TrEMBL record:
Family membership: Belongs to the PAL/histidase family.
Gene: LOC106576224
InterPro entries: Aromatic_Lyase, Fumarase/histidase_N, HutH, L-Aspartase-like, Phe/His_NH3-lyase_AS
Pathway: Amino-acid degradation; L-histidine degradation into L-glutamate; N-formimidoyl-L-glutamate from L-histidine: step 1/3
Catalysed reaction, written as an equation: L-histidine = trans-urocanate + NH4(+)
Keywords assigned by UniProt, alphabetized: Histidine metabolism, Lyase
Descriptive protein name: Histidine ammonia-lyase
Superkingdom of the source species: Eukaryota
Keyword Signal: no
Amino acid sequence: MDVQEHNDFINAGKEETAIGKRQCLDPKKYLSLDGNSLNTADLVRLGKGLFNIKLTYEAEGKVNEAREVIETIIKENRVVYGVNTGFGKFAHTLIPKDKLMELQANLIRSHSAGVGPPLSVERTRMLLALRINVLAKGYSGVSMETIQAMVKAFNASCLSWVPEKGTVGASGDLAPLAHLTLGLMGEGRMWSPQRGWDHAKTVLECHGLTPLVLKPKEGIGLINGTQMMSSLAAEAVERAVGVARQADIIAALSLEALRGTTKAFHSDVHAVRPHPGQIEVALRLRSLLHSDIFPSQISDSHRTCDRVQDAYTLRCIPQVHGVANDTIAFVKSILSTELNSATDNPLVFAERGETISGGNFHGEYPAKALDYLAIGVHELASMSERRTERLVNPSLSELPAFLVQDGGLNSGFMIAHCTAAALVSESKALCHPSSVDSLSTSAATEDHVSMGGWAARKALRVVEHVEQVLAIELLAACQALEFLRPLKSTTPLEKVHELVRTVVRPWDHDRQMSPDIEAAHTLLREEKVWEVARPYMDQYRDRLGLKPLPLDD
């Protein structure tokens, strides 16, 4: 772990300790898991410790039925992969009945081979919740006793040390899920709000919990699956949703500050190329910019200028932001299925007392979707950085160079723009698809893998870069508006400007820029920009007889 990773981890631990101490003050605040209805937004909320969890009555019944099949297989001495055989290349090795429990424990210990910094507490909580959810489908053969022990650990926020690196994404996220299980067995390290990081057995005992003793089939039942890549994907896609819709608001601010035209957003233009995202973004822009409903003095001031059309990063916002929105929607639909899928091997079909070996553990679906997400959402930053360049470049903006008075003595937004450019460049490399790679593992038994774990981690980094680049543009656009005073923009954009000014004062001379960028980034992470603009966007739609913006999940 390098210095930055270490510091990030320590800070995350402090933050999560505070969250953990606050969580579930209302013991009746539960989210029921049934293996069929978990969505990305709720999984993120579970990660934040906003709910305890429990299984539905129907899920408990299915779990018990599947376990009965496994017990019957053992009694009848039927040979089933992972129950009484070795794993991977050792699939043809039969294991004596008196060694079946040792087999499962050995599997967890040997597969706990991850490296690198651990997942944050929030992300580990998401991982545990998602694994419980897929077990609740009742196709894994894991006992109700074991799942209930996992539920109790989740509700107590007893969370295993899970290194973020080491999965190739088939047979699922083996190493991360093995580490998750290892802590539940009372081995390795574990975190809780009361103990912080300590030996897992100590943490469990502190909370009155008993370490897991794995029954036959339970080791493989707990580690086959795509839950690490999918839980990280849930966070990535939810953050992408938030930053994408706020990107439209920030772009509108920049267009206003650059005194651009709204003609390119006319509904007729987009009706003849009716991609859903494009149409929606154009409508959002119309609801934010000059109209009869929300007039703009700035827009009126240049109505008679001779400019015919704007640069692409202004004129083509609906087309580029639109496909980013459609990409996010596509990825979210993939994940909605993946979060509620049985990804174990072998699968147990209790209704006919049968197990079937398959390949649902293969992570190609989430891996491909995550690569697509990174590529799609990156364009929001690519567009944003170019708009920031236009704002700080006096030959393009007709504003003071780098948006500061006394240029030369002051450098203003010069290096803030460099930061945006650096982040965009780094993200270009991160957008190279990981899922096009495959390395054969397990002595060629697992001869094609998804690399979905890396797809998830780099997608999260790309999303964070997008947030940071847009935070810089938000600051630059608000600073540019200061030079157009006393003219006012539209009501929604003025409200956004007011919001920013509650955390960042105008730039009248040079000062440290990083805290301002972080403050703006926090506004975006908490979706404050969206919250302040949305009522006016809904008002615009209402006046036109259009449906209001959909409610958040």
